[in-house]
Amino acid sequence: MDNDDQMVGRVLTRREGLKLLAAASAAMLVGCGPTESGTAQPTTAATQAAAGVTADPATVAATLEAAGLNEEAATSVATAEATEGATAAATSVATPAEAAAADTTLPTCIVSPALTEGPYFIDEQLNRSDIRDNSVDGSTVAGAPVQLAVRVSQISAAGCSPLAGATVDIWHCDALGVYSGVSDNSQGFDTTGGDFLRGNQVTDPTGLAQFTTIFPGWYRGRAVHIHFKVRAAATENQTYEFTSQMFFDEVLANQVFAQEPYSSKGQPDTSNASDGIFQGGGEALVLALTPAGAGYSTTFDIGLDLSGNT
Fold first, then answer.
1. Higher pLDDT, 99 or 188
2. Which of 65, 74, 77, 146 lies 20 to 30 angstroms, CA to CA, from 109?
3. How far is the C-alpha of 178 from the C-alpha of 197, rounded, in Å?
4. Is the Cβ–Cβ distance between 270 and 120 less than 8 Å?
5. Beta carbons of 143 and 295 less than 8 angstroms apart
6. Backbone phi and psi for residue 20, each to the nearest 5 degrees, phi listed first
7. Mean pLDDT, range 71-85, rounded to an integer
8. Is residue 105 within 8 Å of residue 81, measured between CB atoms?
9. Cα separation of 266 and 52, whole Å?
10. pTM
C-alpha cells in the first residue's frame, strides 16, 4: 500500500517549458515517466538571441507539440519567443538582470509534471477549505499550520488565463505519517472512516482554491509530500484530470520535525533525492513556504492544457 504507483496525468513544468525553448540541441521531451527529465539549463529565445543563438520557431513549436501542448498554443508561444529573441539580438547583449527578467516571459501556467496518485486517495467529495478536522470525532489534527493556495490557469493559443470552476483535491498524512480513511498494515495504521487532512475546493474566478492544513509528517520510504488532483471540464462531455504531488525544502522540514508533535517520530528516513517519485520531476514541485504567524503560507501555480486531454 505504500508504493504510490499509479500514474495519472501529463503536463509540463515551467522550468521544463523554458528548456523546451532552448536551441534545438538543448530541447527535451517531458512527460510523466520518472526518467524523462533533461539537464539543459533554463533559457528563453530572448536570452539565446542576446548570446547570438536563435531558435527556429517551427522547431520550437514542434518540440512543444511533442511535449503535449496543442498546435495553436505551441505556435503562439514559439512565435512570441522568436519575436522577443529577435528584438533582444537587435539591441544589445543582455545583462545578468535582463537575462533573468527574460526567463520570466513564458506563461507561468506551464507547470508541474504529473506524478503518481498513490494508494491513499478517496473520492469523498469533501468540499471544505480547512481540512484539519476529523468529522468522525470532531477532533482537529495537530501540526504547524499551512495556508496553501493553489492557483489554476488554462493554457490556450492566447496564453494563460485563470481557470474558474475546477475542482482541486488535496490529501496528505498527519504529523506522524498517518493518512485518514484507510488501513495500511505495512505502515501500521487503520483510520477507516476518518477524513482528516482531506478536502477539495472549487477555483474562484481568479483560478484560486485555498486550503488551511498542516505541514505533513513523513512515513517510511517516502519524502515529505502533499498529494493533489485537479479536475475540470475539457469539453461538454469530457473531463480532464491531472494528479501530482507537492514537496518541501528539506532544511525547513528538518526544523519543523524537531518540534512537537513531529519530534516523537524523528527525522525522515527518505530524502527528496532518494525518493523515486521525487526523481520524476519533484524539483519543480517544491513549495516555497514563507512564515505566517505560527505556521507558513504558500501559493502553488499549475496550468492545464485542456484541448484534447481527458
1. 188
2. 146
3. 10
4. no
5. no
6. -65, -25
7. 44
8. yes
9. 52
10. 0.68
Q: CATH topology for 133-304? A: Protocatechuate 3,4-Dioxygenase, subunit A (2.60.130)
Q: Which amino acid is at 278?
A: F
How large a percentage of the chain has pLDDT more than 70?
63
Locate the DSSP E strands across 157-294. Answer: 159-162, 167-171, 183-184, 189-190, 198-202, 208-214, 225-233, 239-247, 290-292
Residue type present at position 266: G
Cell of 63: 518540440
Q: Which residues contact 217 (CB under 8 A, 6 or more apart)?
A: 143, 173, 174, 175, 176, 177, 178, 224, 257, 262, 265
**Dist CA 171 CA 261 (whole Å):** 19
Provide the grid cell at 216: 505533513
The domain limits of the chain are 14-102, 133-304
Q: Are 235 and 309 in contact (CB under 8 A)?
A: no
In which element (H, E) is residue 251 found?
helix 250-257
